[in-house]
């Protein structure tokens, strides 16, 4: 099995392109001339540096990231299991099809408001992140299982290779590109959906609450600063997650 994961699907971000967009942002801010409408990049960065010195800032970050992570990893774990069962038993795939379709097509706001009836606002981001990532993982892994090279499976049957070794050396290597894509898409979805759920549910001590309060008090620099925080957290989280995933695949391949 290959010990590395292909980087073909990774987004390439160039410094010069980021600089152009920041200059454009600054130009719009100068043209509008009102911080309450469009905060300048400088005021946002200054406000962000002020926020990071506050203990409440880090408590909000930990609050949101922890709960979103629970939803993410739960969705990955259960999604892989359900995909395996669906590939093995056709009736399970047919049973899950309507549910996956409903979750995939229903707006996040609708699901969030509905979940608020049954789930406390503090755990809302866990449920919403889970529901957004689960269909992505399930669908991609199931497609990866179905796309497994049948000749390799036939060869494994001929040589009577044990099921565990078949899964490890055939299925895992074949499914990994699909799983990687699912994780990349899921990581983006879970943060966007999780924070959006917090803005609606307004759990105390969350990033969503800080965004909502910034909007209520027209604190536009704060709103931009927290948005920038979410973007940076999402990027760092993705890099660390994919690094750990590549390390895991390397360890499995070298065993």
Task: Present the secondary structure layout.
Elements lengths: L14 H18 L8 H11 L3 H34 L1 H16 L2 H8 L8 H23 L3 H9 L4 H39 L5 H10 L3 H35 L1
**In oligomeric terms, what are we looking at?**
single chain
Describe the sheet with the most strands: none
Instruction: Give me the count of strands.
Output: 0
**Strand residue content:** under 5%
Low-confidence stretches: 1-10
Label the structural class: mainly alpha
What does this molecule look like?
Helix content is 80%, strand content 0%. Helix 3 packs across helix 8. The longest helix has 39 residues. The N terminus is likely disordered.
Task: List its traits.
elongated; 255 residues; disordered N terminus; mainly alpha
What is the compact description of this entry?
By secondary structure, the chain is mainly alpha-helical. The protein is built from ten helices and no strands.
């Amino acid at each position: 099995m290959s010990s590395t994961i292909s980087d073909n699907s990774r987004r390439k971000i160039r410094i010069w392109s980021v600089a152009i967009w920041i200059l454009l942002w600054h130009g719009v801010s100068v043209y509008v001339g009102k911080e309450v409408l469009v905060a300048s990049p400088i005021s946002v960065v200054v406000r962000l540096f002020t926020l990071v010195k506050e203990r409440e800032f880090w408590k909000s970050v930990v609050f949101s990231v922890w709960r979103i992570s629970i939803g993410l990893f739960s969705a990955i774990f259960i999604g892989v299991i359900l995909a395996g069962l669906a590939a093995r038993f056709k009736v399970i795939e047919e049973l899950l099809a309507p549910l996956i379709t409903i979750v995939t097509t229903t707006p996040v706001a609708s699901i969030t408001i509905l979940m608020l009836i049954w789930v406390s606002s503090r755990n809302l981001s866990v449920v919403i992140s889970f529901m957004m990532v689960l269909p992505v993982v399930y669908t991609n892994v199931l497609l990866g299982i179905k796309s497994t090279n049948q000749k390799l499976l036939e060869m494994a049957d001929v040589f009577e290779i044990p099921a565990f070794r078949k899964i490890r050396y055939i299925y895992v290597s074949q499914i990994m590109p699909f799983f990687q894509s699912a994780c990349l898409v899921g990581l983006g979805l879970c943060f966007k959906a999780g924070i959006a759920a917090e803005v609606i549910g307004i759990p105390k001590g969350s990033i969503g609450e800080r965004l909502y309060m910034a909007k209520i008090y027209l604190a536009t620099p704060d709103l931009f600063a927290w948005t920038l925080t979410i973007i940076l957290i999402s990027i760092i989280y993705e890099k660390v997650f994919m690094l750990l995933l590549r390390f895991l695949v390397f360890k499995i391949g070298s065993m």
